[in-house]
Amino acid sequence: MHLSYRIAVRYFFSRNKRSFISIIARIAMAGVAVGTMAMVVVLSVFNGMEDLNRRIFKTFDADVKISPAEGKRFKVTESLLGQIRSTDGVKLITEVIEDNALARYGSQQTIVRLKGVDNTFEQQGQLDTALIEGSLKLHGNGGTPYAVIAEGVRNALSISLEDIITPLELLYPKTGSKTLNLTSSEAFNQVSLRPGGIFFIEPRYDDYVIAPLAQVASLMQYQGDRSALEIRIGPGFDEQQVSKALAKKLGEQFVVKDRDSLNADLLRAIRFEKLFVAVTLSLIILVAATNIFFSLSMLAIEKKKDVEMLYALGATPALIRRIFLAEGAIVALSGAIVGLGGGILICWLQMTYGLVSMGMTTSLVEDYPVKLIWGDILFTGIIVVIITMVVSYVPARRAAQAGQILRV
């Protein structure tokens, strides 16, 4: 062990337990420990929230989505589908028509986001964990078309799956209609479906109605046009790589986005909030670490005779400075180790036992999400080291200078 650290360790463990300097040092340790623990826990919560949002996106959004660069629709041809299927990683292609529509059930009506999907939708299995009532089937016995409805739409229209008499009516303005008269049925195309299942993910998806592609195409007069193609990639393939390969192959006529790109704004907001909180907590740790500054300053006064003796024995100002820097490092490191250990323990308990509940009844998530990333723990440790060096340098330099003056 280097001489400066040996002396610093001796100062740390041989202090008078009742001295005011010792009390300040322990307050500094406690402050650093609490701040470090808070940073580990809060950063892990943000990681968990980001991971939770990705799970939510995966429940509804496609791995990769292809949409037209201009306009709302594009023609789907066999050559286009062949290009997509020939791309490595593509497992399923779901043809999609999506637009706003008017939904009516009995005497209730509301605007919904209507999404028409082909038969591959049932193979996706995306909404399995979000289904709260009924089933995900889009076709019943005899070819009866069914609709899968979001919980928000069900509540707005008072839909009952047990009612086999009242249909769910979907209305869409006729092409070429210049005026929209809500009281006139002639201004709308109309299809009737039977409610077959209810799903709930989060409020942003609460206005969706998922219906068979043929009925939606007839309603919106899309014929062979589609508004998007949703791609499910095979296991072992990366969404971003498949997305880039498809974008390169399809050209500028199409916009190809992976799931993270589809929700880039929300993910960016979470990361920005995480950064802002990390900076805020770093400032809190800095405020707590100012006690190290006062502790070292008073320690330098208390050990004035020791410093004189060390100079008399041939010590250099650099050695004296390193002694007090090491003393501050020991105080901060002790608090950091306790804080990191406490933060990791709290996160582990939450991940293992779910101590804090989200208060949600869906099967998608029950406990507050937490995810430990070792990079964040390393980042927290580096922040503590930097803060320690900053607050310890001034009293260490003053102790060295004071010793030189006394020596002269």
From TrEMBL:
The chain crosses the membrane at residues 20-46, 275-301, 329-353, 373-394. Its main location: membrane. It is a multi-pass membrane protein. Residues 27-247 form the MacB-like periplasmic core domain. The keyword Transmembrane applies. One of its GO terms (cellular component) is plasma membrane protein complex. It is found in: Cell membrane. It comes from the Bacteria. GO terms for biological process: lipoprotein localization to outer membrane. It holds the Pfam family FtsX. Keywords: Cell membrane, Membrane, Transmembrane, Transmembrane helix. This is ABC transporter permease. Belongs to the ABC-4 integral membrane protein family. LolC/E subfamily.
